[in-house]
Amino acid sequence: MKTYLLVLGRHPELSRAELRGKVDEIFYDEEKNLLLAENLQFTNPRELPRGEEQLFIDQLGGTIRMAEVVGEYFDKTQLQQVIWKRIAAAEKFKCGFSVFGGGNKLLSDLIFSTKSHFDKIRVENYNQENLSSGQIFQRRILQKGHEFIIWKRGESYLLCETVANQNLRNYELRDRKKDFRDAKMGMLPPKLAQILLNLATQNGSEDLTIVDPFCGSGTVNIEAAIAGFKTLGSDLNERFVEKAGENFQQMAEKFRYENTAGQFRTINANRCLSDVEVSNPVIATEGWLGENFEARPDRETIHKNAGEVLDLWRGVLNHLAEHKVQTIAGCLPAWNRAGSKQTVSEKFLLHAQKLGYKPTLFANGKPTTYYEREDAFVAREVFVLKRIA
Asked: Going by C-beta distance under 8 Å and a sequence separation of 6 or more, which residues neighbour residue 200?
């Protein structure tokens, strides 16, 4: 059985959560944000012509790189010889290194010794720094050569060779290149939409319908269709619904899913499943995060928004409970003010529990976790609810 090293993104609690059911976690290093895993569940629901490792990472929003473990070595000379042998055998004389735990000296030694060993080779660590996911993608290092990850722990060197990397071009197409985007509406990153989708579909059947009652520009629906699911998007704003449908069709042409996989309609979120036939619905949604602020909100504004968000979600939860929806993955607003977060999650979760829902705990034992940009006025507080009654 192969063992893989996964390089996680900026929100590791979410990264680890979406991997549940897809890998067996062996070891996680919180400081370096690295995860060792085995028994990866490779799936290809749309029978896409891609390697299984690349297809695996394409389905994840929170893992930026994955490497196959080559072996563990206790001698640096032996480590170097194994690397050189793999380069020579493939006859691809272009490579790069990323070192975790060994410091700049180990990285510099690997770069210098590799250049000295081969008569002709291109080492991509131009500034003697670890390679980023963007550099690997833009320079086509995996197609034209190798990237080796060396994780030094104590006296051992764990050698891994990168086999898959995030496709940044596809994310750009599904984000900035959508025909319709509206900053005032708020823009859900495709990576977070993927994470929500994975959280909503864990341990579920393949015959699920992904429902987003706050569909906005259709980001969740697009990610659902790419992953091979049927999807329903709704919103109270008629223009958003129209444009979400157009975005869905645009991305169907680029990513070759069936345009008929999605349907969109204008309706209040607290009636999103009324008068429509949907098989096995699960919810994946950003929800409503309150007003879109241009300046940091004051205490009174936060209090007003918190009340409106709670009232809205109570109605939505009541509706979803009536329809016996099994899983709800979504976001609540958490306002950053005076060095702390003002949240509604405690009252929200209390109401959900009264309706027979239980939060799925994250790896840190908490029922929610945050997805946020630095200096953002409002963070997204992510939750997953499972129906137990």
From this structure: 210, 282, 283, 284, 327, 328, 329, 384
